[in-house]
Amino acid sequence: MGVVAASALLGPLGWMWHASLVPDTYSVMEMGHAEFGGGPGGATAAHQHDHQHDHGSVAHVGGSQPVDLVSLAGPRGRPADVRETLVAREEQIRVASEHTVEGYTLNHDSPGPEIRAKRGQLVEVRLVNESVSDGVTLHWHGVHVPNAEDGVAGVTQDAVQVGQDYVYRFVADQTGTFWYHSHQDSHEQVPKGLFGALVVTPAEPSGPSDAVDVLAQVHTYDGRRTVNGRVGASRVPAEPGARARVRVINTDNGLMRTWVSGAPYRVVAVDGVDLNAPEPVRDTAFALPAGGRVDLELSVPTDGSAARVGLGGATALLLGPEDASAPPGAEPSASVDLLDYGSPAAVAFDPDEADRRFTYDIGRRPGFLDGRPGLWWTINGHTFPDLPMYVVSEHDVVRVRLENSSGEAHPMHLHGHHALVLSRNGRPVTGSPWWTDSLDIDDGDSYELAFVADNPGIWMFHCHDLPHAVEGLVTHLAYEDVAEPFVVGGPAGNRPE
Ligand code: C2O
Ligand code: CU
Questions:
Q1: Parallel, antiparallel, or unpaired for β 176-181 and 195-201?
Q2: How far is the CA of 289 from the centre of ligand 2 (A)?
């Protein structure tokens, strides 16, 4: 039945169905409606301009001569300090000795290689696609890379096809725990293994040289939860009394609780940002959002036993001498609340002097998504693709009010920036400054966030429960006068979600 006939027969329902259809190829700049948050741009940029360009048609918001997104790239003209080549393949991943899953690897492994850099170093990663038929990219989750290095298929680049390669270059300006993952068909490729860790340490070593610095990449392959690719509890050799930093990365789609048994611990960093004056806690867990990272610091017990870092349940790291006995790892019921953890400290901008104020209100209602009837996520009352495009100018102080009444939690991730959490449900943060790039918004909660728009580009702002992103929980933050040459769909088959 044709669209016209369907519309005529079904009236408003047919219109809704038709209005929900998503074209095969489109620019994210042409999706939905621009919001200006009370800042400039509303008058001049209510319409989006099209310019002829060597990539074809280029969309942007703003009144001035646009800057091509492709030019917002990392340094090219000098040698890299850290170089990696990552070869992506479709192949089997061995999860437990008797269990393999069909998935994706980087250099024949999943997780892919751990990339380590010192702050200030230039990182160069060459991604080679040997056999991933849908194409691949690498997104640097939590890193404020220049926009063209952000690795989002159809937004900042084309998906890298079999036989092609792509070089990412950026200066590692933030210390902390980050990760990388494909942002092509991410709801497929990330769960099936296309990810790894990026750790940036201070330029000069801080702390004792015998300290243990260990990753805990938590990932569920085909229903089996693993840490660093292994099921169950893994041992990490450590001397009695040694100080240890455990960098926990939640690469799954849901919240995961982590805790330490057998020793007190401190939450020293969240999403790659150090907390100010974190106090020791015991019998308390930390609820880590999907996509988020937390660094836990503890001292290995001096009595020869091991400390156990619980990762959601039976999955654990045991830190101590070889064969040390480990405590049972009962899950504590209490959780660290970052609203009042650590001590206040100055931040470099005034959130009360906001240039733009936006609302990101997540709900759910029956309707159509690309012609399919169902119960779909809404943002500010609209369903995909009629979603807000949050428009900012460089240097703006931006406030976002995130609300959720959708019946489920959503781990919200903003690319290219960290936001300062100001309050939850009206209760202000009274502890350490809390910077986040991956924030779990529980059903019924609301958060006030603020950040400085200091990284021009077109940035995704989406739910990191990746199937929700496919279901339309995706928006973008667009700087004025940045031209978007890429399209979702198109010859490269870009499918960022
Ligand atoms: Cu970790 Cu848009 O992703
Ligand atoms: Cu979600």
A1: antiparallel
A2: 11
Question: Which of helix, strand or coil describes residue 468?
Answer: helix
Across the strands, what pairs with 266?
297
Protein residues whose CB sits closer than 6 Å to any atom of ligand 1: 139, 141, 181, 183, 291, 413, 415, 460, 462, 464
Distances (CA, A) of 100 to 232, 323, 348: 16, 28, 49
How far from the centroid of its chain's Cα atoms is residue 237's Cα?
30
**Each residue's pLDDT tens digit, 195-222:** 999 999 999 877 776 689 999 999 999 9
Residue 361 identity = D
SS3 44: coil
Residues 370-382 have pLDDT tens digits of 899 999 999 999 9
Q: How far is the CA of 414 from the centre of ligand 1 (A)?
A: 8
pTM exceeds 0.85 for this model: yes
The answer to whether 308 touches 318, Cβ cutoff 8 Å, is yes
For residue 364, which ligand has an atom nearest its CA?
A: 2
Quick check: 458 and 58 in contact, CB under 8 A? no
pLDDT, residue 3, reads 54
> Structure tokens of 458?
């077109």
Q: Is residue 465 within 8 Å of 254, Cβ to Cβ?
A: yes
Q: Is pLDDT above 70 for 9?
A: no
